[in-house]
Amino acid sequence: MYSTIMVPVDLGHLDRLDKALTSAADLAKHYGAAVTLVGVTAAAPGAVAHNPAEYAGKLRGFADAFAAKHGVAVAAAAYTSHDPTRDLDKTLLAAAQEQGADLIVMASHVPGLPEHVFASHGGGVAAHAPVSVFVVR
Amino acid sequence: MTTQDNLTPDGSANPIETDYTIGQDNIQPRIGPFGLDIHNPVFVISGGLIILFVVLTLALPDQAASFFPALRDSLTGSFDWFFLLSGNIFVLVSLAIMVSPLGKVRLGGVDAKPDYSYAGWFAMLFAAGMGIGLMFFGVSEPISHFSSAIADGAGGPESWAPLAGAPGDAVEAERLGMAATIFHWGLHPWAIYAVVGLSLALFAYNKGLPLSVRSIFYPIFGERVWGWTGHVIDTLAVFATLFGLATSLGIGAEQANAGLEALFGLPVNDASKVLLILGITGLALISVIAGLDAGVKRLSEINIVLAALLLLFVIVFGGAVQILTGFFTNLVAYAQYLPALSNPFGREDANFSQGWTAFYWAWWISWSPFVGMFIARVSRGRTVREFVFCVLLIPSLVSVLWMTAFGGAAIDLVNQGYQAIVDAPLELKLFSMLETMPLAALTSFVGIVLVIVFFVTSSDSGSLVIDTITAGGKVDAPVSQRVFWASFEGLVAIALLLGGGLGALQAAAVSTGLPFAIVLLLGCVALVKGLMSEPRK
Question: For chain A, which domains are there?
Answer without folding.
Answer: 4-136 (3.40.50.620)
